[in-house]
Amino acid sequence: MTDEIRTFLFAALTEMKYDAEDADDDTVFGPAGLDVDSLGLAELAVRVEDRFGVAFDDDEAEDLAMMTVGELCRSVQARIQPASAH
Amino acid sequence: MRPIVTVTGVGLVSPVGATAAEVFTAVGEGRSGLTRPPEGHPVHGVVDVAGFSPPIDPASVLPGPESRVVDRSIVMALRAAEDALADAGVQVGRDVDPYRIAVIVSGVGGLSTLESQVLERARRGRFGVSPYMLPGTLPNMGAARIAIRFGVRGYTSSIGTACAAGAQSIGEAVRILRAGEADMVLCGCSEAPLFPTFADAFGNARALARGWSDPTAASRPFDRRRNGLVLGEGAGVLLLERAAHAAARGARRYADVLGWGATNDAHHPTTPRPDGTGAAQCMRIALRDAGLRPDDIGYVNAHGTGTRAGDAAEATALREVYGSSTPPVSSTKGVTGHLLGVSGVVEAAVCAEVLRTGLLPPTHNLDDPDPACEMDLIRKEPRAVPVRAVLSNSFGFGGHNVSLVLGHPEPLPG
């Protein structure tokens, strides 16, 4: 599932005209990495919500800039399958 | 003595050219920019004829992610501003203090993008709405994005007076420069009305020219057979500058803006006051502001959109100011179509060329002048008459009237 989320994120970023070619799980979304601005992060959050049926709180969306691609993938997966740890 | 305000840069996006000289040549030669909508265009099958400006890749004026959900009006505004600055040889920060340059670029906003977002919202719910929609559509975003792109940090605004907005932006720029609040102002307008909802609104209001087998014959201001306006898209930005500032940097001066006036008809949201008194008083105020008498005007570039009521009301207004002996009058919308608020900017650029060349452009398609529009109308061929000063009218929905007076660059005192 994480692979599917990652593939979706990279496709979305490319469609949004960000250069995600060299990005990997350790790349952050903010200025130190993909440099996605606040509106871009908001759009990415909406796309993920739409595609995977999850929801981000407003302050969580703001924190996306500090997250890596891998962290977001795991966070989305955890929301999709909250009971999978049991 | 109040500062002289001069035009040092022109940037146009229009159906008939990108510079003052190109537009003036098309107008003089009667080379129409009006065509049938091309296959696949959103207004194909919606309107008979329109004025299409050249396509511009949004990525050529905005960084990648910003360029996806941005209205064409903003893209055209950015291109026109870029061209105006280049034409004037100005780099913000090098040739002008960033806090001493202002932007007043107007228009109705990105309604086409709003239309598509509303349709997406209806189809997909909130997931269809882009967070980029507001910066891509708000009416101030042409001015704001010009400021962001070129590092302009002074007064920045946009004016919402419909088809008078471009001329009014020039007028407000004059006010700011005279008050000493800036050394330069990028002023103008951008309009992208060629999408179905907007075009249908004009069509259902019976404002659009219709039934012409030749699209280049559809826009015919002051002609007896005129039956409406032809919508066009475009942008126009002028760089206005204090003449002393322009002289200090050795800049070319196209023309001076000698004066301007603004009034309201206080009559009806869309119909002009038939007695023309609001427009007449507007012209008188502009003349007084310029320190000129009516007889000093050698040419009038009319608003003249080709609607039955509008053209007749403007002619009545001109006769109110001039009696039976008006200066030579023409409308250049016969070849450009009606670019809404942008018209006043394109026509100010045409007026600058009139002053430079001494040629007064004709009204295209004015085959049989309407007796209700009786004036000294220029038909068929340009008239060669050197003029001292020219007047340009712009009128907008809401009863907004704006008149500009332009003249040859005046010598600086001292």
TrEMBL record, chain A:
Q: Which Pfam families match?
A: PP-binding
Instruction: Please name the Gene3D superfamilies in this protein's record.
Output: ACP-like (1.10.1200.10)
Reading the lineage from the top rank, the first entry is: Bacteria
Domain named Carrier is located at 1-80
Cited InterPro entries: ACP-like_sf, PP-bd_ACP
PROSITE patterns referenced in this protein's UniProt entry, alphabetically: CARRIER
Query: What protein name does the entry list?
Result: Acyl carrier protein
Species: Micromonospora mirobrigensis
Automatic annotation (TrEMBL), chain B:
Q: Per the UniProt entry, what is one GO biological process?
A: fatty acid biosynthetic process
**Cited InterPro entries:** Beta-ketoacyl_synthase (IPR000794), Ketoacyl_synth_AS (IPR018201), Ketoacyl_synth_C (IPR014031), Ketoacyl_synth_N (IPR014030), PKS_Beta-ketoAc_synthase_dom (IPR020841), Thiolase-like (IPR016039)
Task: Report if keyword Transferase is assigned.
Answer: yes
What keywords appear on the UniProt entry? Acyltransferase, Transferase
Which molecular-function annotation in GO is an example for this chain? 3-oxoacyl-[acyl-carrier-protein] synthase activity
Q: Which Gene3D superfamilies match?
A: 3.40.47.10
Under Enzyme Commission nomenclature, its number is 2.3.1.41
Q: Name one Pfam family in it.
A: ketoacyl-synt
Q: Which residues form the Ketosynthase family 3 (KS3) domain?
A: 2-408
Tell me if Chloroplast is a UniProt keyword of this record.
no
Query: Known SUPFAM superfamilies for this protein?
Result: Thiolase-like (SSF53901)
Membership in a protein family: Belongs to the thiolase-like superfamily. Beta-ketoacyl-ACP synthases family.
What's this protein's name?
3-oxoacyl-[acyl-carrier-protein] synthase II
